[in-house]
Design goal:
Layout lengths: L1 H26 L2 H16 L9 H23 L18 H11 L1 H7 L4 H12 L4 H8 L3 H17 L3 H23 L2 H7 E9 L1 H4 L5 E4 L1 H10 L1 H5 L1 E6 L2 E6 L7 E7 L5 E7 L2 H5 L3 E3 L3
Parallel strand pairs: 1-6
Antiparallel strand pairs: 1-2, 3-4, 3-7, 4-5, 5-6
Length: 294
Amino acid sequence: MTDDTDWLAAAFEQHRDHLRGVAYRLLGSMSDAEDAVQDTWLRLTGADTSEVENLGGWLTTVVARVSLNMLRSRRHRQEEPVGDTWPSAASPAGDPAEEAVLADSVGLALLVVLDTLTPSERLAFVLHDMFAMPFDEVGAVLGRSPEAARQLASRARRRVRGAPSPDRAADLARQREVATAFLAAARGGDLSDLVALLDEDVALTGDGTASGSGRPLELHGAAKVARGAHSAASRAENSQLALVDGEVGIVWAPEGHLRVVLRLTSRPDHKITAIEVIADPDRLNHLHLALLPE
């Protein structure tokens, strides 16, 4: 039994990177992708694979089905990522360098477009167009005919081709650089670093939950906003970059529970002109979010 388990583990490791790539492109979240890969391993250990001729194909099908279930659950609850709690930002999955390469290979702009697709469209497009899976196999994962899978992929392809423009992709890259710099400065706790990132007339606004007083929060000017960000340095340690309704922002999810989202507005020269702090639970529930590796 031990020999069998060791063989399975070794065989699974040979396919892990591929499985993670499939799951990440389907889910848009590294933490969710790792969860899907782990679930696939558990299913492998509990399955009879004696008659499986193509283990790589079998594993790809399983991780795709797991990811599809996660996508459907996420869409049903209008939550992101999937699950009762958010993946902990303090416990990143995998090697950060590998995650950055994987994220760049997909591209923020493509992730934004993929998030507009239905789970079935996204799966058909990713499996066929990105991983060359035949439509009969794609259809088997979806529980549909090969022709239905072909139509789903075609519909998704039209949306992907229609957007985003190169300018949009460049803007997302700029947003990511700004958010990364802001988060690093907030974690460092250096007021001068924070002020350097802010437009002198920057405005910070927040809802009543964010202020803690029930009244809206409003700060104006680089010095005041920097002091406000400085006071939240401990929160920044456990914050993470995310797509927020298709724009790059920052989320804080202590103990895996989403509490605060920051929307950042910046100029082409990377100076931040506005920060919106969202903490009202009802508003948070209506945001479409996808965690990003830093």
